Amino acid sequence: MTTTSPQGRTELLRPDGSPVRVLVVDDEVSLTELLSMALRYEGWEIRSVGNGAEAVRAARSFRPDVVVLDMMLPDMDGLSVLGRLRRELPGVPVLFLTAKDAAEDRVAGLTAGGDDQVAKPFGLEDVVARLRGLIRRTGAVPGPRPDSVLTVGDLTLDEDSREVTRGGESIHLTATEFELLRYLMRNPRRVLSKAQILDRVWSYDFGGQANVVELYISYLRRKIDAGREPMIHTRRGAGYLIKPAPAAA
User: Fold this and answer.
1) How far is the C-alpha of 217 from the C-alpha of 219, rounded, in Å?
2) Which helix (H) or strand (E) element contains residue 11?
3) Out of 62, 100, 187, 247, which residue is the most buried by the measure of CB atoms under 10 Å away?
């Protein structure tokens, strides 16, 4: 079931109309608090725990619709926790959080039965979008979500499938490029400063310089605008914006 919040945001609900339940399992208190706050903003009911044993007990009593699970916990690794969770809730989708970004770590989590995985540090919007996709795909919240597709001119971005097309042509983006484009497309024709982009696209503890924004804007332009009328524009001294190209306006 879906409904629209007073803020105009589409909310996901369980079939009985109650809030979606998310179990967050991570021993980093500051990260857990930040993530829980972002998920509560979605209207979801959140329970957070700091180790594997507590996660299993919480799953038994809380009956979550989706689990956010850190791969490295103080008492056991995430794969062991996943096995125990599956015995309690066989169909619950699990999103792994990991500090490791090596291909073998991603494969291990997904092969063991995890449904998706993001590496720390991560963007909060990315985690929320992935959880929405997992919840919908597993049927905890039935029905389509039309607002999952962002459109600016002839450019479309599907937040659930993470597919991007321009003029019907598929465009492959890295995870960071996708987050940057999504932020721009959620704010069409609006000039976004480097500080705003860093705050929303990069991690909460990102320690880099603002020129990383220029770098990723250039990456996006090569993929989105190359050989076409430009959609991504610079306002010198102010920031960046996206708007439909004249031919697609």
Assistant:
1) 5
2) strand 10-12
3) 62
DSSP 8-state code for residue 147? G
| CA trace torsion 162, 129, 117, 53 (10° rounding) | -160
Distances (CA, A) of 76 to 25, 32, 54, 249: 12, 18, 11, 54
Nearest Cα residue to 91 out of 124, 118, 64, 123: 64
The 10s digit of each residue's pLDDT in 7-64 is 444 567 777 778 889 999 999 999 899 999 989 888 899 999 999 999 999 999 999 9
* Cα–Cα dist 74/27, whole Å: 7
Q: Please report how the helices 78-88 and 103-111 are oriented relative to each other, as an axis angle in degrees rounded to 10.
A: 20
**What angle is formed at CA 81 by the lines to CA 63 and CA 49, rounded to 5 degrees?**
60
Nearest CA to 223 out of 179, 161, 181 is that of 181
Structure token pair of residue 147: 């607002």
pLDDT tens, position by position, 91-120: 888 888 877 554 555 555 555 567 778 888
Alpha-carbon gap, residue 117 to 66, rounded angstroms: 13
For the CA atoms of 129, 135, 141, 142, the dihedral, rounded to the nearest 10 degrees, stands at: 90
Least confident of 25-29, 68-72, 128-132: 128-132
Q: Can you list the alpha helix ranges (DSSP code H) found in the chain?
A: 29-41, 52-62, 78-88, 103-111, 124-137, 175-185, 194-201, 211-224
Whether the Cβ atoms of residue 134 and residue 115 lie closer than 8 Å to each other: yes
